[in-house]
Amino acid sequence: MDGLQYIRKASLKVVGKSGSGLDLSNLHFTFSIKKSDAQTPNAAVITIFNVAQDTALQIKKEFTRVIIQAGYEGLFGVIFDGNIRQSRIGRTSGTDTFVEISAGDGDQATISAVVNTTIAASQTTQANIIAASTNSMQPYNVTVGYVAPTGNTKLPRGKSMFGMATDHLRRSAETIGATWSVQDGKFQMVPRTGVLPGEAVVLTPSTGLIGFPTQTDKGISVRCLLNPQIRVAGLIKLDSRLVQEAQVAADKKASASSSTKAAATVDNHIATDGIYRVLVTEYSGDTRGNDWYADLTCLAADASAPAGEEVSAE
pTM to 2 decimals? Predict the structure, then answer.
């Protein structure tokens, strides 16, 4: 992969309700993106510099969706696809202007999708409850990706479903021990101890790793060059010898409870096999500057953990 990371490449498009779009890729823009499996919409802030006034007004009035692709000539892909929350026009100086776009991934579905259906007694499985909930998200441009195995257990009676789709999805996730999120317009539900299908992205100094990964109270912190192959709930692989162990102050050691110590040992330990599950990805980029990074928060993972299975929304 190191041979693929030598010519930066980026694409920025805004799209309207009609499907028509505007390609802004040739302009100078920066972006800051945060993606996680926290069951809240991923967020992005994109700033486009010195846009023609007519184009700036068009962005503000006509477009509802933004898509960013980034990476390198040989390693390029979508890193954000979401709804535009606000477009703000401003100035950095007397002569320089900007358009700032704030966007959320699946936020319209999260706040607006309502379920109103009944599932027959013979069909009341978690898979069907999840399918009914995600069906209500489709009018808001959210499709179904990978969903955790749900088993074949049926509820003892039929189920009348009414209310916010997110409420039903949270209950289903709790029932099967999973987390759910929307990633680039696709709903996914992955076991807390599982991972998405696919091979781990190998990060070394020659494949984009920057500095030394560090053990923190939130997980293993990693910085690398921007890589669209890295996915929330996917795997990365590090050389465990490069991971810096956290230093714990003596007073904290003395005051920490045994349960806290146990949790830290389980959740934040340095994996001997170097395999980690990505919890958070934060992208920062500047098409005419130095920033072109992914900052990751990860936890040690079982490489043999089960992947999600695709569940039909029908």
Answer: 0.89
